[in-house]
């Protein structure tokens, strides 16, 4: 919570005291990106808190998984729908960069908070199984489409 406030204060300062429309657009883009990163970190924290409550290992953040999660989130936004399209290709790409035993993913859309996304996955037996699976690494990508709807991709893998 303190981290959220620390990030929000500079963003609010920039948004409130911008003098021209052009910098405001740049600042708005930065603020949206920072908000997405905050949601990504919150999803990871909620999933790890849940795993800890079950006595499971904490998932480590993976830059490799993040790269492919971002690409897939962009893909879903471009299609306007959720999908696991090309999952095998994502899993193979991750495996080509770092040898993994298994890869899985959860996707979601239109949840405004990390907790809502987690609860949506938790209510689905297959998504819950993935969150509670024998994985070591993860990454979450959260982005908004032009209408303001959030799209989520969380990739998991076991080394």
Automatic annotation (TrEMBL):
Highest taxon listed in the record's lineage: Bacteria
Transmembrane portions of the chain: none
Record's keyword terms, sorted: Signal
Segments forming domain SCP: 44-156
Protein's UniProt keywords contain Signal: yes
Signal peptide: 1-23
Cited PANTHER family: SCP DOMAIN-CONTAINING PROTEIN
Protein name (record): CAP domain-containing protein
Naturally occurring in which organism (per UniProt): Maribacter aurantiacus
Classification lineage: Bacteria, Pseudomonadati, Bacteroidota, Flavobacteriia, Flavobacteriales
């Amino acid at each position: 919570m303190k981290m959220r406030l620390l990030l929000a204060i500079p963003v609010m300062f920039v948004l409130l005291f911008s003098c021209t429309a052009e910098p405001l657009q740049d600042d708005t883009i930065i603020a949206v990106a920072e908000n997405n990163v905050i949601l990504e970190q919150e999803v990871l924290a909620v999933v790890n808190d849940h795993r800890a409550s079950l006595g499971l290992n904490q998932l480590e953040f993976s830059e490799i998984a993040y790269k492919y999660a971002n690409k897939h989130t962009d893909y879903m936004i471009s299609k306007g729908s959720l999908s696991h399209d090309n999952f095998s290709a994502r899993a193979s790409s991750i495996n080509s960069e770092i040898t993994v035993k298994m890869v899985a993913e959860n996707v979601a859309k239109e949840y405004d908070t990390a907790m809502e996304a987690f609860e949506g996955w938790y209510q689905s037996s297959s998504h819950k199984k993935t969150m509670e699976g024998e994985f070591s690494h993860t990454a979450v990508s959260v982005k908004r489409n032009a209408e303001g709807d959030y799209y989520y991709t969380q990739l998991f893998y076991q080394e």
